[in-house]
Specification:
This protein is of the alpha+beta class. The protein is built from three helices and nine strands, in the order αβββαββββββα. A hairpin with a 7-residue loop joins strand 5 and strand 6.
């Protein structure tokens, strides 16, 4: 019986370690770094208002983040609790946004955003 417990314990430990490695480590992007998707610097993108597809303002950009200080890959959006989005800060990949009529539009619905990483600064 003891010999069966050891492999199970080792497997469980390995799964937990794998989950820990799956979590992202985000770094705030230097203000002068260009965010190519928006033809703007990280400093310019900070505080942009964020809208949903219907044109409702749902939050604002809190931070531009990435795997290092010079590679922007995501935006932290400070949601205001409008349009079905929870009132929290969420890390959202840049490819989930578009610029439409000088507005930053989030192309992910509240259900998709609810499964994304929460930003704790």
């Amino acid at each position: 019986m003891f010999s069966r417990r050891i492999p199970i314990a080792l497997a469980a430990t390995g799964l937990m370690a794998g989950a820990a490695f799956a979590q992202s480590t985000w770094v705030e992007i230097d203000d002068r770094v260009q965010v190519p998707a928006f033809s703007a610097t990280a400093d310019q993108v900070d505080d942009w208002d964020v809208y949903d597809a219907a044109g409702t303002e749902i939050g604002e950009v809190e931070e531009v983040v990435g795997p290092d200080a010079s590679t922007p890959t995501a935006l932290v959006v400070d949601f205001e609790g409008n349009g079905g989005y929870a009132d929290q800060d969420v890390v959202i990949p840049i490819d989930q946004f578009s610029l439409e009529n000088n507005r930053l539009v989030l192309n992910a619905d509240p259900a998709a955003v609810s499964s994304m990483e929460i930003w704790t600064d």
